[in-house]
Amino acid sequence: MDQLFDVSLFAAALRMVAPILLAALGGAICARVGLFNVGLEGMILVGAFSAILGNYLTGSITMAVLFSVVCTLVFSLLFAYMSINLQANVIVVGIALNFLATGLTTFSLRAIFDVKGAYYDKDMKGLPKLDIPVLKDIPWLGDVLSGQSILVYAAIIIVIVLQIYLYKTVAGFRLLAAGENPIAARSLGLHVKKTQYVAVLICGALCGLAGAQLSLGNVTMFTEGMTNGRGFIALVATMLGQSNPIGVAGASLLFGFMEALSYRLQNFSIPSNITAMLPFVVTIIAMIFFKNSGYKDEAKKSSGSSR
Amino acid sequence: MDKLKDTLQALIQPLLAIVAGLLVGAIAILLVGGDVLETYREMWKGAFGNFFFLTNTLARATPIILVGLGVALAFRAGFFNMGAEGQMVLGALSAALTALYIPGPGLIKMLAAIIAAIIVAGLWSAFAGWLDSRFGMNLLITTLLLNYIATLFAGYMVAYPFKDRTGSSALSQTQMIDASAMFPKLFQGMTVHLGFVIAIVLALGMHLFMKHTTKGYEIRMMGGNPLFASYGGVNRGKLMIISMFVSGAIAGLAGASEVLGTQYRFLDGSLTAANYAWSGIMATLLANSNPIGTAFAALLLSALQTGGMGMERNTDVPLEISSIIQAVLILFISAKITISFIKRKKAGAKDGSAV
Description:
The complex is a heterodimer of chains A (307) and B (355). By secondary structure, chain A is mainly alpha-helical. Chain A is built from 13 helices and four strands. Chain A has helices at residues 7-32, 40-58, 61-85, 90-113, 139-145, 150-168, 170-180, 182-187, 192-216, 230-240, 245-265, 272-289, 293-306; strands spanning 118-120, 129-130, 148-149, 221-223. In chain A, the strands form two sheets. Chain A has a two-stranded antiparallel sheet. A two-stranded antiparallel ribbon of chain A has the order 2-3. The relative contact order of chain A is 0.21. With 355 residues, chain B is mostly helical. Chain B is 75% helix and 0% strand. The two termini of chain B are 37 Å apart. Mean pLDDT of chain B is 88; it is low at 348-355. The chains are: A mainly alpha (307), B mainly alpha (355). The interface between A and B is large, with 51 and 50 residues.
């Protein structure tokens, strides 16, 4: 057991939490304004691909992350336009965007890199790892918390910022109001549509970061469909966390840890097919124990009156 | 006259979507430096160019039609069953194992394989329905997550306990089933098989079932207006489990038909890589869950895919163009679905599970 639960497992868990957490926060903001975003999976995929593409084109890691965020923003605009302006069913739009993301990335992979399946460049630089001055000298904690990619720390900071933004600022309250009771919000002169757009765009930016962490965080590569269900797991994290940033972070930690554990268990001569099931099984079990009543009310509100 | 007008109006949106899809496809072709007309000509040839290609397209359409029909049934009832992939894979695995290990003449093996696929896939799908009606777990999410579990489990089964160790290949697959249990081909030397006939018959049968039976009416009512349905005495939980069972069973049948008609064994990843399940869901979305329409949409998607393969053989344009065209089709169609959902919303539908 000592071998199983060692320092590197927790360090890996933190690394794997980041994409799920970032996307789940995006999902939470969308849920807050009454949009159930099934398209997270596709948005992360676009982010992951454009991060690699940006890195390939510019050679600069900052530009790569920026490029990824911009591309995902454009992609999320499509979601916003179809679900807010055209009033299309958000779930169908989400599913359609997932298809579009798969299509666009596989096509671009062929068209730009002329490879099928995966693009890997060993000379490409990944996200920089940060050593936190004092923290890194603390025996166990230092090894887990220090030396992670910059986006892991960004994710933690974003959780705190969002928590403050949503519950301590006027703009945040307006965002909540737009989802809580759109008609009342509108009668107060709030721009509900604008607020929804802002929420979707924040979600897009966060998914771009999530994708960048996925493709540039540990190994610098892109594989077709490399999100592998993380967007859906993030969606569950959104629901379990009741769309509250701290709660979402807790749920994402659980799922990220399970993902790290599933990789680790492969070293114990357990077939990889069985270990790879672990995150999905735990996610489903978690859904039984944490009723998402709060989330469901959100969904009803959105279908009832906001549009 | 009104009827003609209605039909024309129903056709305009899909046609517009196809035009839009081809336009975006043309842009993508230009981007990679291809000749648009030449590329589309090759695509057409690859899908319908000669009898072999035509039957090939029909063969590919078979599992897509079946999955699409299964999903359409659930969608009609307002249940977002996204688990077709897992259901199909489990159906294929059960069909292959049953055909391998049930003794008796070929016909018995074949029927037993189909029944096993239907039962296993149906139960797997009904399980998600039960989780929703019993624990209030969002069906859309559970079915998505169950996909991963099902495909990984099937992969494990053929990588370890039931792996084919007779041949020299290291692939994760079962042994080949007995020739007597295979679906007959419809034409000598062509790929299209009995499964296609089953799919078409099922599409017609489902059309009649939806229109002319009480259960079909209950399903349409539940999808159209859940509150009205429950007022009329329809038990939502029960209907959910039943329709999820049937929906999954048909997806399982798709898997069985692939095993018995095309691959003759269960090979890990072969069904998921071909994207049959997701194409089926796309077909359902394109046809707005109409059974006959789903069959046609499945043919269209299949033609795009086989056409893409033909195109890739003869031009420099990558076959992934097809997936872009498909995605644009879906995107455009989701605006159309909007109209029916707005109608539904006006009718006061506020059900949680389908939201």
